[in-house]
Every structure is written in structure tokens, then in C-alpha cells.
């Protein structure tokens, strides 16, 4: 690290759990974020400001006025722009040290298979079950840790699925694809603006912990937030032997 970086990241370096070595690991890391909306906005901004060296952001949608109620990385001036490019611009304004790659394609199996294998951590910031399961399959296939978040109306959840651990559950262990509920989204159901900020920030925190290698991750635990009462519920999660993605009958 040069003198400017030592100053920029000094508040991290002062933490015993991170220090110079941990910050150096962040600078040499690559995070893949799928989804550049309500969850992806705070997650990407925090990873960028924290000094994660390379960030790839995937989203095929464009910024709309209705997004600005909660998707804090975007601005009025970028309405109509691809969300992935908008987030890349937002990160660059905070930390030009970070190399950001914006991918403006839909996250399908082929694209995810190509991108996930090159990442050190993957953040699922999407809003539909089909894409979540595709991300999970790619992370299991390439043994990459997955930080998963979701938020709708006044309820949110966050967990980590770490395929590097042989006995750890994957996303499909908790939410089997065959049992996926009917898709709902905030366009029809609504979403509390700060809720996505809370969950997205927690995803960034879990990703930074995984990259630095400190603390205890949410692997094997699902945290659920009821923002109406600001109460958390924790549920344990175990690998299912009959899981079609990671199970070992």
C-alpha cells in the first residue's frame, strides 16, 4: 500500500481483526455482485469504499425514477442508464482505486458459470428465485462463498452459503427450487426504503469478513428482520442430504 492508501484505509487498519494484512487482502480481492438495485447499491458502495480491489456488478435493468426511493447508488441524472454502469460510476466517485466491471447482461447460467469462477466472494442482491437458484448452482459448482440477501415490504433476510465447507448448506437446502413460492416484487408489493439498506449493508459486512478471514460468518444461520418491530429472528440451517445441488446421499 502507498501512503495515500494507508491514510484512506486507516480506520480499517486500526482494527486488530483487519490491520494492514487484512486491508491488503481486500485490495487484492474480487467481489461479484449480482443485482444493482436496492440491495446491490449499499453492498457495492461499502465494498468499494472499503477498498475491495476488483468488483464486478451484473444487472441488465436501467435506472427508473421509482428506483430512487431506495436504490441509493443511483441519481436523477442517471435515469435511463444501465444500473450496473450507474453503480460503477458511483464507486469511482468514492474510490478511484477500485477496478469496477459493469456487466449489462441478464445473469443466466452461462454468464454466471463464467463470472463466479473468477470471484473470491459472490453477493446475491437479486429479487427473483430463478436467478437466486442459478447463482447458488454456480457457487456450489465452483466452491465460492455466497452472501445472500432479500427484502420485501417490511421483511428482510440475510445468510451465507459457503460451498468451501463440505457440510455447509446451500441456498437450495433452505429454499428448494421445486418449492419456490409465486414470484412477488416491490413494484406490486412495495418495500420500506431503509430495509434494503440494512440488508445490503449486512451483505457487505459478511463479504468483507469472508475476504479478510475474521469473525464468524452467517454460514448455517439465516437472520430474518421484521422492520415493523425492528426485531431479528435467527434460524439454524443444515445441509440436506437429498439436496439436488449440494447433497451427498
Fold and architecture overview:
The protein has helices at residues 3-8, 10-13, 19-27, 40-50, 83-94, 109-116, 129-142, 171-174, 186-189, 193-212, and strands at residues 30-34, 54-58, 99-103, 121-124, 145-152, 155-162, 221-226, 231-236. The protein is α/β, with parallel strands linked by helices. The chain has a single domain (3-236), classed as Rossmann fold (3-Layer(aba) Sandwich), CATH 3.40.50.720. The longest helix is centred in the last third of the chain and has 20 residues, at 193-212. The model has no long low-confidence stretch (mean pLDDT 95).
What characteristics describe this protein?
single chain, 249 residues, alpha/beta, Rossmann fold, eight-stranded mixed sheet, 10 helices, 8 strands
Amino acid at each position: 500500500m502507498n501512503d495515500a492508501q494507508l491514510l484512506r484505509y486507516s480506520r480499517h487498519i486500526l482494527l486488530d481483526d483487519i490491520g494492514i494484512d487484512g486491508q491488503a487482502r481486500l485490495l487484492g480481492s474480487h467481489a461479484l455482485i449480482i443485482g444493482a438495485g436496492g440491495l446491490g447499491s449499499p453492498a457495492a458502495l461499502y465494498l468499494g469504499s472499503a477498498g475491495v480491489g476488483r468488483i464486478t456488478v451484473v444487472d441488465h435493468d436501467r435506472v427508473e425514477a421509482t428506483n430512487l426511493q431506495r436504490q441509493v447508488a443511483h441519481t436523477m441524472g442517471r435515469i435511463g442508464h444501465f444500473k450496473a454502469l450507474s453503480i460503477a460510476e458511483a464507486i469511482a466517485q468514492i474510490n478511484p482505486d477500485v477496478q469496477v466491471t459493469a456487466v449489462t447482461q441478464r445473469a443466466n447460467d452461462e454468464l454466471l458459470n463464467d463470472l463466479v469462477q473468477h470471484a473470491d466472494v459472490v453477493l446475491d442482491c437479486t429479487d427473483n428465485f430463478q436467478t437466486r437458484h442459478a447463482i447458488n448452482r454456480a457457487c456450489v459448482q465452483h466452491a465460492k462463498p455466497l452472501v445472500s440477501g432479500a427484502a420485501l415490504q417490511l421483511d428482510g433476510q440475510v445468510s451465507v452459503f459457503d460451498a468451501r465447507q463440505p457440510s455447509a448448506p446451500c441456498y437450495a437446502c433452505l429454499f428448494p427450487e421445486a418449492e419456490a413460492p409465486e414470484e412477488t416484487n416491490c413494484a406490486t408489493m412495495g418495500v420500506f426504503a431503509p430495509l434494503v439498506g440494512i440488508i445490503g449493508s449486512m451483505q457487505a459486512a459478511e463479504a468483507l469478513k469472508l475476504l479478510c478471514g475474521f469473525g464468524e460468518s452467517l454460514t448455517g444461520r439465516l437472520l430474518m428482520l421484521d422492520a415493523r418491530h425492528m426485531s431479528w429472528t435467527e434460524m439454524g440451517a443444515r445441509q440436506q442430504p437429498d439436496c439436488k445441488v449440494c447433497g451427498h446421499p
